[in-house]
Write the structure tokens for this entry.
Amino acid sequence: LGLTWRLHDSYLPLSLSASWRTFLSDSRRTVGGEPELHVEQLLRLSGSVSLPLRRFIRSHNFSLGYARDLRLVETKVTTGADGVEPTYPTGLNVGSVTARWSYRENVRYRDTSATDYGLNASVRARLANAFTLSEADVLQIDTDLSFFRPIPGLVGHSAGVYLSGGFAQGPRAARTRYF
């Protein structure tokens, strides 16, 4: 379940969103060292503001945002045959600040909805620590690059290359799941 509100027609576009997910997992709770199924809920609240620097064909955009993830794990106490109570890892309620820069150079024609040629690039950095009210320290840097050009002799067709990569440091469960 999710809800997003965006205000794009202002000088500083604003976006607020909230989502709630419930899923069955065996990754967080163990009984006697063995994983046990449990219900996990994730409530995510986020907001961001953008500073678009637009030109006719080329555009730059810088955005800054804050996101808060609250994890709720069922605490129903069950014990194994030997009477061992379940154990949980440290909390992964994460508050993070995200900064993103993107550059777009696209040329479109009136008679097509596809971009015929262009270049898109973006870099995103996400930081979570005690200063951002996070229970886990996370540093994550992602980058994307796409480049496409028309194929000579084939009207309306283009060839493209898409490169994406990143670096993350911190608990795997606290990072976003692009890995």
Summary: Confidence is low (pLDDT under 50) at residues 110-114. The first strand starts at residue 2 and ends at 7. Residues 48 and 65 are 4 Å apart (CA to CA).
